[in-house]
Amino acid sequence: MTILRVCRLIEVPEGEAKRFVVRNFDVAVYNLGGRVYATDDTCTHGPSSLSDGYIEGDTIECPFHYGSFHIPTGKPIKFPCTIPLQVYQTQIIDGDIFIVVN
Predict the structure, then answer these.
(1) pLDDT score, position 46
(2) Would you call 50 helix, strand, or coil by DSSP?
(3) Pairing between β-strand 68-70 and β-strand 17-22 as defined by DSSP bridges
(4) Each residue of 60-73: pLDDT tens digit?
(5) Separation of alpha carbons 4 and 1, rounded Å
(6) Is the full-model pTM beyond 0.90?
């Protein structure tokens, strides 16, 4: 298990998602109702950045083919997305967001 720093909490406004490069992969960080979540940023259906998608409640709609995922679990909830997203456990320490990577 490895803990990696992603960004400052203030970099991700409430109700939004932002893309960050951590080591060699893209991570989408979401700030939803004071809870912070992190998933892979690339949609599992096609080459699109989820952080550019539309957030409604706790779901993210991919801007490529409009499939969607449940952010906290990464589960696909709208076709054409069928493969779950990688979800990362988050920690906030002194205003910094970290993710846990296995």
Answers:
(1) 84
(2) helix
(3) unpaired
(4) 999 988 899 999 99
(5) 10
(6) yes
